[in-house]
Each structure stands twice: as C-alpha cells, then as structure tokens.
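User: Sequence recovery, please. Input:
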C-alpha cells in the first residue's frame, strides 16, 4: 500500500513539473485579463474596418459604410457601461477615403475624388450642432498624391504627375480668408522622391539620385526662413528603405554588401556635412522594417528560418560600438510588423493556426533573458495591423469573416502586471 501511495505521489509530482515546463515554454498563451479589457470600436452601420491609427487615446480607421470607404474617428471616451461613445464619420462622400493618419487630434487621409487621389485634412473641430467641420482638400486637381503624414497640424505628402515625383509640405497656416496657405515643394524637381515623414523638426524622405536611393533630411526651421536648399543626404553605395523617425533620430534598412541591415542616425553625427549612421545589426540574414521610439529600435530578423522581432535599447559599449540586439519574440513561428512606443512593443505572430497580437514591455527574467511576450488578442481572431501610442494599442481582428477594430488601454492592467 505504501509503495502504491509513493508511486501516486511521484506521478503527481512529475505531472506538476511537466505542466509547469510546458507553461514556461508556451509563449503564445493568451492572457485573458488583457483580452477581457479590449474594446471593439466598430459602428453597426460600417463594414470591413481596416487601417487603424492611434495618437494618445484618439483613434481613426477606414471602413465601408455600405456605399464606399469612409474615415471614422473615436475620441477615446466611454459611456457608463464602459462602451465606446462618440464614434463619428469625418468623411462623407461618394468616393473612397483610405490611409488615415492622426496626430494631436488632427487627421489626414487620401480621398479618390474624380478618380484622382487627393489629400484631405480635418483639424479636429466641430460645428455648433456637434457635427465635424468639412475636411479641406490640400492639393490641386492636376496632381495625384500618396503617402501623407502629419505632425501637430503640419502635413507632408508625395505628389506625382507624369515623371514628376516631389515632396510637398504644408506648415499648418491659413490666409486671412480662412483658406490654407499654399503647400511648398521642398524636394529637388530633377530627382524622384518618395515616402515623406514629418516630426518635430525634420522632414525626411527617400530620393533616387540616379544610382540608388538615399535618405534626405530637411529642417523645417530652415525651410520656413525661405532656404529650401538646405537638404542633407546620406551618401551610401546601396539603397536605403523604410525610414522612420523619433525625436530627431532616424533608422532605416540598407544593404551592407551582403544582406539588408539596420542603420541608426542620432540626428547629430556627420562627416563632411553628410549624416553618418551607425549599423546596429550585423549578421548573415536580412533585417527589415525598422521602427524607432526615442533611441529604442525594433525590426524583423531571422531565427531558425522564422521571422523574429529584434530589439535594441539604444545603448553603446565604451568604444561606441552599439550593444547587441536581442530577440524578444517566439522562435518557433513567424513574427512580423513590429511597432514600438516608449518601452512597449507590439507585433503580429503567426502560429500557423491563427495570427495574434503580441506585447512585450522591456521586462527581463532574473537571468537577463527577456520575459515571454503576451498574446493580447483572441485566439482564432486572425488579428493584424497593430499600432501603439501612449500605452494604448489598436489592431484589426477578424471574427466570422468580419473585420473589427480592437482597442486596449494598457494602463488598466498596470496593477495586474
């Protein structure tokens, strides 16, 4: 009898240990607490929601209203039941409106009026009856546009017509009659320019110089003083892609002669007045799609023939060599589309059974390894397109064939962590 009891307790102990190990290895386990506190933002009269963007607690996205795609806006308020209130449609027309961007409560997007793409801008204000004021069309009818970006009411975009590909900038000012001042062309008309981004002081874009694509840096203060020739450019032997900017610091991907690597420029260091970046990845596989917040950088790399998420904390060794990046995602399935804000990172993980949104907040185990990321979306919801700002996350989730916008405020769960 004693031997039977001893065998039972041994088996029970082994079961506990095995289950504990499985739990430690299972990084795609969903956290029900996060899932419980996520909110669906869709309205009952819209379909196929997509392209969510967030700034502070305000969210915009595009969805079909039954006729075409329009731009929807939520101001971050909840009713007494904890449900989203004040979801409004800020475009309302007979053509397609897509690719919204939001900053400081102001929104910019592309509208395809008369089969031509235009930049539309809503300044975040309302009429006396509570309806949003009409958006403003920023470009003329003779120029197609793409790639709008916005920072505190200032807007950049790429305009193109025939062989012309130029970067335009509107500084957020108006004439005395209330109409917006004319945008300024800030790029070189003899070259092809792409993908502008605007931030506090800089506007950056890619430019084809006849040999490869370089990164251009234009200071808004110099431009406003009438000096539009003060464009700084990189000077590399291979093309640069996927630039992002934060607090004057810039990252991009570029070949080192063998594969694609990630480069970081602190906004200051130059050689012969040419921005001199630092290579922060160095391996034998492609590193892609970098994102930056302050001096922290994330990107896609390779691990065990799977796409993984790598993180660099912005630190350097004593010889000014950048410290080694670390893998923060699961290495048994593909992970991609990282976004970073502060010390929080989100991305898409594809387990093979479903796509989910994963979250990591720069915490580490006692042995120095990063803690496992947390699945914050529902299993089986096939989630994608995460965005994060100010501890708040939005993404697209699909259930029963219907796309919905999900919103999660991480501040709700800080005590839980």
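Assistant: Recovered sequence (417 residues):
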């Amino acid at each position: 009898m004693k031997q039977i009891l001893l065998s039972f307790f041994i088996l029970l102990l082994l079961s506990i240990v095995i289950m504990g190990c499985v739990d430690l290895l299972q990084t795609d386990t969903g956290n029900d607490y996060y899932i419980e506190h996520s909110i669906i933002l869709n309205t009952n009269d819209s379909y196929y929601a997509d392209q969510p963007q967030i700034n502070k607690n305000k969210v915009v996205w595009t969805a079909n209203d039954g006729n075409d795609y329009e731009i929807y806006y939520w101001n971050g308020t909840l009713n007494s039941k904890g449900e989203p209130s004040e979801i409004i449609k800020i475009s309302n027309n007979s053509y397609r409106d897509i690719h919204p961007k939001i900053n400081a409560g102001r929104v910019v997007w592309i509208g395809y009026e008369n089969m031509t793409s235009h930049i539309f801008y809503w300044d975040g204000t309302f009429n006396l009856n509570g309806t949003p004021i009409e958006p403003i069309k920023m470009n003329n009818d003779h120029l197609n546009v793409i790639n709008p970006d916005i920072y505190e009411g200032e807007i950049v975009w790429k305009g193109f017509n025939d062989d012309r590909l130029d970067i335009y900038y509107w500084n957020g000012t108006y004439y005395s009659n209330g109409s917006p001042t004319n945008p300024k062309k800030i790029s070189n008309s003899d070259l092809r320019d792409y993908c502008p981004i605007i931030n506090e002081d800089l506007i950056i874009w890619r430019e084809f110089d006849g040999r490869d694509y370089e990164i251009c840096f234009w200071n808004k203060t110099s431009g406003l003083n009438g000096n539009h020739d003060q464009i700084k450019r990189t000077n590399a032997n291979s093309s640069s892609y996927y630039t992002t900017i934060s607090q004057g610091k810039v990252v991009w991907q570029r070949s080192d002669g063998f594969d694609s690597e990630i480069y970081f420029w602190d906004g200051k260091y130059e050689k012969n007045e040419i921005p001199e970046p630092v290579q922060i990845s160095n391996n034998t596989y492609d590193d892609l799609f970098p994102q930056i917040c302050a001096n922290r950088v994330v990107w896609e790399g390779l691990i065990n023939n799977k796409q993984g998420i790598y993180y660099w904390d912005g630190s350097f060794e004593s010889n000014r060599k950048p410290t080694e990046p670390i893998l923060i995602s699961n290495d048994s399935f593909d992970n991609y589309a990282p976004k970073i804000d502060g010390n929080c990172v989100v991305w898409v993980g594809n387990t093979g059974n479903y796509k989910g949104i994963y979250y990591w907040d720069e915490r580490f185990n006692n042995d120095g390894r990063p803690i496992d990321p947390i699945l914050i979306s529902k299993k089986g919801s096939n989630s994608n397109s995460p965005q994060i700002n100010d501890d708040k996350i939005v993404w697209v989730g699909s259930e029963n064939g219907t796309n919905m916008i999900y919103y999660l405020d991480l501040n709700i769960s800080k005590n839980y962590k």
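The first strand starts at residue 39 and ends at 40.
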